[in-house]
Amino acid sequence: MLRVARENWLAVWAKSSFERDVYGSRLFLRDVVVCNSPDSVHYVFVERHENFQRKSPQHRHALIPLLGDGLFVSDGPLWRERRRVVAPVTHVSRLAELAPAITEAAAERRAQWRALPPGPVDVLAEMGHLTAEIICRTIFGRALGQEAAGKVVAAFADYQARIGQTDVLSLLGLPDWWPRFHGPGVRRAAQRIHAVVDGLIAGILDGGADAGEASLIRAMSEAKVPGTDAPMDRRAFRNEAIVLFMAGHETTANTLAWALFCLSQDSASAERLASEVRGVLGDRVATLADLPSLPFTRAVVEETLRLFPPVPLLSREALGPDRIGDRLVKKGSIILVCPWLLHRKPSLWDQPDAFIPDRFMPGAPKPPRHAYIPFSTGPRICTGQHLGLAEATICLAALAGSFRLALEPGVQVMPVARLTLRPGETLPMRLTPR
Length: 434
Known about the structure:
By secondary structure, the protein is α+β, with helices and mostly antiparallel strands. The protein is 48% helix and 10% strand. The protein has helices spanning 2-8, 38-47, 57-67, 76-86, 95-114, 123-140, 145-162, 168-171, 184-205, 216-222, 234-264, 267-281, 295-307, 339-342, 385-400, and strands at residues 22-27, 30-35, 54-55, 121-122, 314-317, 322-324, 327-329, 334-337, 403-407, 416-417, 421-422, 428-433. The strands form four sheets. It has a five-stranded mixed beta sheet. Strands 4-12-9 form a three-stranded antiparallel beta sheet. The chain has a two-stranded antiparallel sheet with strand order 6-7. Strand 1 (22-27) and strand 2 form a beta hairpin. Helix 5 (95-114) packs antiparallel against helix 6 and helix 11 (234-264) packs across helix 13 (295-307). 44% of the residues are buried. The model has no long low-confidence stretch (mean pLDDT 87).
């Protein structure tokens, strides 16, 4: 099972895994408990958050070479301190400030697609470049530049491909301080990202040529650590900047790629989306003010997030003994909440494996609370969820509203889960202008 999980841990789940509520097993010297019901998710992520706030050893050790003590992997007082500094950067109150850059980037990508010669296009790579451009314009300012952003995108894809998916040492009971070996490819990919972000931070903090440009990353650099009159130190600033780039680029890129794939397999939904976009926008690209008039486009995004959650596994470590339902939990147990399982649970969703955007249209019955958690839930919920939904909706309207997309003949798409859920390494599709 561990051998399979190293390549793609989605392959380890049996059909019965989707149907059960709370269950577990023992892997070497660690108990593993899977929470696959709204009640158990609420208990772990909300009611008993303090006991289950720490990410699992596998999750931490997979990201520490890249993020250090960044928000994704920290907990306790450090997490609370950093979240208060970082959360305002992508808060919903910033949407009106950020959305024009999203519209601008989506319009430019649409124009580039219209100028492409006939032939297949790697839509996964295209969405990576688009969302990287957006994160640069909204969060980092234009100081990062296309070339530097491209380096970060390529290095992160390389990092995902190389980083281990299992932490056997923790399953054997070895402590966190015991060294974990990461191959030279992992270290090189992390160093490439660090070099780019360190240069950006130096430009901001040292008053370089681009120091006058407004950006949300600059706002974060000027924010004071709670309880002090000082900003974050440079290492902390770098770690949180990389968290923002990874969260704002990778997850949205994957969501858009999956949405375009789903529409390529469902011509009725693709035509319905295009009709909605034409009726509301004509040939212009959506702005934030248009989003309430694009309910089906947003429903496509939300249904894509259900079927293909960008982070399909949320893992925690029990800081103390507990009880989840009828199951006793020992200190150190690994707790798994898997949107991949929960979003396809037959007792929660009608036709759980089918792509049905109407589930998320206004007036449709809502799923139970905590049955749908593409952005996690509880105190550690993604602070950028509103920004991500708006970005995905605007970009999908611009691209799927202007092009028919068809999967390149002979290509088979399989979900591959490493740190995030991707449709393989590439997604070759052919574009036909509408």
